[in-house]
Amino acid sequence: MADSIYTIPINEIFEPKKGCPICAIRDTLEQRCVEYIMGAAMMEPDVRIETNRLGFCKDHLGMMLAQRNRLSLALTLQTHLDEIRKNVLNGKREMFHKGGKAKSISKINSTCYVCNKIDGALAELLDTMFRLYERDEDFKALYGEQEALCLPHYELVCSLAPEKLSKKFLTSFLEDSTRLVTDYINTLYEDVSHFCKMFDYRNTGPEADWKNAKDSIERTAWFLTSYHPK
Question: In angstroms, rounded to a whole number, what is the distance separating the alpha carbons of residues 170 and 192?
Fold first, then answer.
């Protein structure tokens, strides 16, 4: 895949101060990767070799189906099926006896071309984020002004931080990250609690005020998983 697919200016992701910026990076990478596979990359031999070998997880296959380019998807799946047929199954019934066939099937069931690409690109972009946090005071302030970090990405950045940041900046980064999560979960708890209260018979009628509670379940699902429910 061309390097330009992965080029995402970090500041542009953080400047809106909306939601979790790490989710925004991942979502952008996913969309670009899927569109690339369904477009020009379909005819690139090096890409097809990898998609044939690794296949796709259910989520990214679903994104590819949503592109509505059924011919491109069919051609990609045709050669992927052929890879499984010839190099994994190979017409043998003994695949679950001693040997490597069962392992080959397990691998094909647990790998995804898009996941691999996204994981690598996200790691590089997080490296850039950490460098900016240390070297750019404006970005350091911008990081602390974000609306939230989702729980999975809070764990991710805090687990990486000790390796990526000097001691001078590590404490402030962990404090900023924890504050973003704590402030958001407190707000979320209030909204979910209010949602529950609105089902009390005393809170019915045209004057009932839901405040920010109506989408609190969906926002909680996102916060806990890093994905918005579909």
Answer: 33
Contact 177, 154 (CB under 8 A): yes
Q: Rounded to an integer, what distance in angstroms lies between the CA atom of residue 217 and that of residue 169?
A: 35
Distance CA 72, CA 42 (A): 7
Q: What is the pLDDT of residues 125-159, one digit of tens each?
A: 999 999 999 999 999 999 999 999 999 999 999 99
Sign of CA dihedral 63, 65, 70, 76: positive
Per-residue pLDDT tens digits for 77-95: 999 999 999 888 876 555 5
The residue whose two tokens read 């209260």 is: 197
Whether 27 has a pLDDT exceeding 50, the answer reads: yes
Which residues lie closer than 8 Å to 102 by C-beta, 6 or more apart?
95, 96
Name the packing angle between helices 113-135 and 151-164 (round to 10°). 60
How far is the C-alpha of 226 from the C-alpha of 30, rounded, in Å? 14
Mean pLDDT of the chain: 90
Q: Give pTM, 2 decimals.
A: 0.88
**Distance in angstroms (rounded) separating the CA atoms of residues 139 and 143:** 6
Rounded to whole angstroms, what are the CA distances from 176 to 63, 145, 155, 171, 188?
Answer: 33, 9, 13, 9, 18
